[in-house]
Design brief:
Distance between the termini: 50 Å
Strand order of the largest sheet: 1-2-5-6-9-10-11-14
CATH architecture of the largest domain: Alpha-Beta Barrel
Largest sheet: 8 strands, parallel, barrel
Keywords: Flavoprotein, FMN, Monooxygenase, Oxidoreductase
Enzyme class: oxidoreductase
Number of domains: 2
CATH superfamily of the largest domain: Luciferase-like domain
Helix content: 25-40%
EC number: 1.14.-.-
Number of helices: 14
Strand content: 5-15%
Family: Belongs to the NtaA/SnaA/DszA monooxygenase family.
Number of strands: 14
Shape: globular
Structural class: alpha/beta
Radius of gyration: 23 Å
Protein name: NtaA/DmoA family FMN-dependent monooxygenase
Length: 456
Amino acid sequence: MTAERRQVHLAAHFPGVNSTTVWSDPTAQSQVEFSSFEHFARTAERGFFDYLFLAEGLRLREHRGEIHDLDVVGRPNTLGILAAVAAVTRHIGVVGTLSSTFNEPAELARQLATLDHLSGGRAGWNVVTSSDAFHGGNFRRGGFLPHPERYERASEFVALAKKLWDSWDDDAVLGDAAAGEFLRAGAVHDVRHRGKHFDVDARSTVPRSPQGRPIIVQAGDSPDGRDFAAEHAEVIFSRHAEFDDGRRFYSDVKGRLAGRGRSEDSLLILPAVSFVLGDSPADAEEKAREISLQQISKPTAITFLEQVWNRDLSAYDADGPLPEVDPDPGEQITRGWARAFEENQAKIAAWRAKADAEKLSIRQLVIAVANRHGFVGTAAHVASEIDRYVQNRASDGFVVVGHLTPHGLDEFADAVIPELQERGVYRTEYAEGATLRENLGLPAPHRLTDQIGATA
């Protein structure tokens, strides 16, 4: 008997303020105007994607005392955008990046539960941590949290949010004076929590959401991050987009689930991947080369190196060899990226070896290490590669990253999606009324009602 083919899951990453996005293209549009988000969301929904994904920046990054070039387009609020997108779509999920360091559990849980209700059960939260004082400068705590404690706080944060989401009974009657209906006693339970990072006595103001809880997404890759994912995450936004590396990561993280009483199908792993399509392999490769040169201009290549070397490299030619000087261990000239001096030293050594072996200039090296396109080829080839990864458990699908705002997904939806459907590994329609959890094929969340009144 032939085994049933595994289905591909896809998420759509809105092009953000990073080196992947091309702003010099004549078709590039605003990062702030709603028309950009609307077009992108409608395209993703037309392509039957599981969800739209937004990154978030809490502060404009700085480089050598000035706002970083890519941040001048703006960093609007994630929840506001997702609520607006939910209003102009019917099926696609809306997932946003929100920090567990500079937010409070009761308020963020309330905001996400509200979004889940407004969207009909389509909300998700990409849990990230923020430990540096630069981002913390926007908050009264500053850089209050030592780096080693970031996942400790995040785990306690998410556990408390789950208790709040579970604190309403499924059959609670909402108050409606006109209809003579009122909330029954005992339908909502107080949440009392005493932990290292939070001391909370709360009563959720929002009933249990349509999908039980918003979907939890996570992107950490450290041992602590992988443990956090095995404990709490339902989707991992992975950086392991190479086939063999992806299989190792997939096996490692999925192997941690059984020890936490979870099944393999309770967690999806979706690496981020860019793409370039062409009428032939040669055409796609030429397009990929042109796009890479747009993404990494000469000034961008030098700026990228300066972030790692932590020194002014403006005197160097981007078409010349790597600087011979060592990184500066002093105060960071780039604010908004957290990199240890030792990490930069190791990275520079690896880059020098690569540049020497392949005779690469500064610009060529930056393109090779920072902007390698994941899938390059015809639509049929890209679909075949996506299918190969999923069937061989190198991933459960992908977070697709285009290079144009807001049209970066158009070609993928028009050309690659039909190829996946032809292979029988991708939906041809959404199930009417399905929640994001149902579209992802994730099990219903295990309720924590028996733990709600307990002190942590």
